[in-house]
Write a structure and sequence with these properties.
2 copies of one chain form a homodimer.
Chain A lengths: L5 E12 L14 E11 L4 E8 L4 H12 L7 H6 L1 H9 L12 H22 L3 H7 L2 H6 L12 H12 L2 H4 L2 H4 L1 E9 L5 H13 L4 E5 L5 H15 L4 E5 L6 H10 L5 E5 L7 H11 L4 E3 L6 H9 L5 E2 L8 H14 L15 H10 L8 E3 L13 E2 L2 E2 L15
Parallel strand pairs in A: 4-5, 4-10, 5-6, 6-7, 7-8, 8-9
Antiparallel strand pairs in A: 1-2, 2-3, 4-12, 11-12
């Protein structure tokens, strides 16, 4: 094993224009993805690279906060840092000054996520393995030491986490087959908000042809009729076997959400995503009761494990869309995945990383935590900018083999 | 009335060292208060000034975000801007890019608060009146137009807000007496976390001597015995008539909170403040049930009206500590105060502004919304830096008479 001690931290502001309305939804009308990147330079030749997503403006803010946290990051060998990363993470998250800008949410939490992801990347690269392989090689206590489980004491202690992983170990061999078959994907790009019907038709046909069996449509128009018409069209195009999901990007009031969900009841919609404000747990509780058996997915704007626990405890979420570029990186993603396993809920990540890191994490979730291998969102628009872009064939993510988290970007 | 059109927006990073452990609590061990200040320069000789609190590091981040929002603020006469400020506020809060750093929380929301407060300051100065007088002069529909009530449709529409204010108008004259008597204060500075017993004794004696009849103590030690001992000591010093509040600044697990609350049950504690993580609604529900009739106060880390509504709807908060330097300024403070009135809960602001703006807002809450005139937190440590520092005598805030929000700082 090589030695790597962090000697310098660099924040990079990288932005990528999208074409022709890609990336647009009911709230985000600008086609730009940006990454606040952390690079960890070491005393050796390795460099750890992590990132979080933003939508352009504000990316510089996250970069400045990465620099602020960088000064607080212990400059020790990476193996030493990761041996008790849960404590490291908690100390950074509870910095007495920066904490005021959160706590555990918003720009400070995004910065912490970028740094955390870079630490995991450096760790995996130091061991010369892809992230999924590193995580599969750790013992349950080693996994538990990666996690800041503070404020989850009632639901998930370190002992609980270890016991859960020990229990799943019995059936783990069976689940390792996923490494051969690849993890199923779903196509989130057939129906961006600004796409017209013609493009929607073309994309749906193309996605089915490429082997996807689950498609997502952006809704949340001021004009509910548009949403209903497009959902109906997509069901016709996709046939009755294909899973269809609707994503309202928080644009509805509870009443509007109820009305559209009622109107599409016969379309067999697999989930309704982000129907209303992401902090409004009680409205999601009410909606869930009203639209059952249709189910609710959310998470891309749920900032931390404590909020997720509240959503889960109230029955306000059915598909946990945790995102390691919204939560405090890989480690809080794992904490939320453990919680979800405890509550019997599937984790279907939102992919602020375009799936690059999450393709590793869903393998871990399935093999080690026993989560169902449902499917992982796929967004291809900026894949050419990654050094090792995720490969999806026949609708499945190929298991990545390069060392690290697969989120390193080509130089600008 | 003078005309004022905003022509230039300036963000200022102001920091103030506190002395001898003042300002310290269980999570914030550094004695520094900082303000991210917005100055609105106009085509006339008036300048609007708003602020939000931070704890030093990160204040520059909020200032940069103020600059980002400044470019998006309509440059129109202040009367025109405020005529539909609810829409202005919503447009800024839902900026398609910056929204990703929230939404409606964290550094972006703090920046929006600073700008909003500056707009209200400029408006009041343009009319030549203190904020409380401006707000008391507005009609209920004019007040309602100041508010972004999106995502509250189920609880509080514009019509609901107007109806509530109309109803309270009948008994308003009676409540206007508060303008003569002044609003009661409580002393939050007797028991900062790092103060030793001797200082606690001196401060308590001094506070009682100055007319305060409510005192607060910082708790949340790793060592519960210290908290219990200090609370017992303070009760002895203050006598049985004085109200005592404990503030744990989020440091406890649910179990720890239950244990300390049980241990101080005989001390007749008026509220326990921020017992655990500020996003953990369900733990506050459980604690409230367990420690009844002791009650829970929180709000300084509740970022927006939607989260407050969830706390209220679940019975997880009893004293609503809304803060116009945490929420999106004066206008979202009013929205939360309306919600609290609807839920029958008192508003006792947390004063990130050191009470300078809130001394106006509690008068509005009492006179126009019919809230009980309970008491307002008082923190004197940096009063000398304000142009018009709040005056407290015989334990009551004197009604301010200078035009504006009273939060303008002396030049550095």
């Amino acid at each position: 094993m090589r030695s790597s001690t962090i000697v310098r931290v660099e924040a990079q502001d990288r932005r990528f224009a999208l074409e022709g309305g890609a990336g647009t939804d009911a709230v985000h009308q600008i086609s730009e993805y940006a990454f606040a990147v952390t690079n960890l330079f070491t005393d050796g030749d390795l460099c750890g690279s992590g990132l979080v997503l933003t939508l352009g403006d504000g990316n510089d803010i996250v970069c400045r906060l990465i620099a602020a946290y960088a000064a607080r990051l212990p400059k020790v060998p990476i193996e030493e840092l990761m041996a008790n990363f849960g404590t490291v993470s908690r100390n950074l998250a509870d910095d007495p000054s920066l904490r005021w800008l959160g706590p555990h949410k918003g720009a400070v939490h995004l910065a912490l996520a970028s740094i955390t992801n870079a630490c995991f990347d450096l760790w995996a690269k130091t061991r010369g393995v892809p992230l999924w392989k590193l995580l599969l090689s750790l013992t349950p206590p080693e996994i538990a030491n990666l996690l800041d489980l503070s404020y989850l004491e009632g639901d998930l202690t370190q002992d609980d986490a270890i016991a859960l992983m020990n229990r799943e170990q019995e059936t783990r061999k069976h689940r390792e087959r996923i490494l051969e078959s690849g993890y199923p994907g779903y196509d989130t790009s057939v129906g961006w908000f600004q796409y017209d019907d013609r493009k929607l038709r073309e994309n749906a046909s193309d996605a089915l042809h490429r082997g996807f069996r689950a498609l997502k449509l952006k809704v949340g128009s001021a004009d509910a009729a548009r949403d209903i018409r497009r959902a109906t069209l997509l069901r016709e195009l996709a046939g009755s076997e294909c899973k269809l999901m609707l994503d309202a990007n928080q644009q509805w009031t509870l009443r509007q959400a109820e009305q559209v969900c009622e109107a599409v009841r016969d379309l067999n919609i697999y989930w309704i995503e982000e129907p209303t404000h992401p902090d409004d747990i009680e409205s999601h509780v009410q909606l869930s009761r009203k639209i059952s058996p249709m189910r609710v997915a959310l998470g891309e704007h749920v900032p931390n494990r404590v909020m997720f626990r509240n959503f889960m405890a109230r029955g306000a979420v059915h598909f946990v869309q945790a995102d390691c570029t919204r939560l405090a990186g890989v480690s809080e993603f794992i904490a939320v995945s453990l919680l979800a396993r405890k509550y019997g809920l599937p984790v279907v990540p939102h992919v602020g990383d375009m799936g690059q890191i999450h393709q590793h994490l869903v393998l871990f979730n399935h093999v080690v935590l026993g989560h169902e291998a449902l499917f992982l969102e796929y967004i291809p628009h900026i894949r050419k900018h990654f050094v090792h872009p995720a490969r999806v064939s026949s609708g499945r993510y190929e298991t990545p083999q390069d060392a690290g988290l697969s989120c390193e970007l080509k130089t600008a």
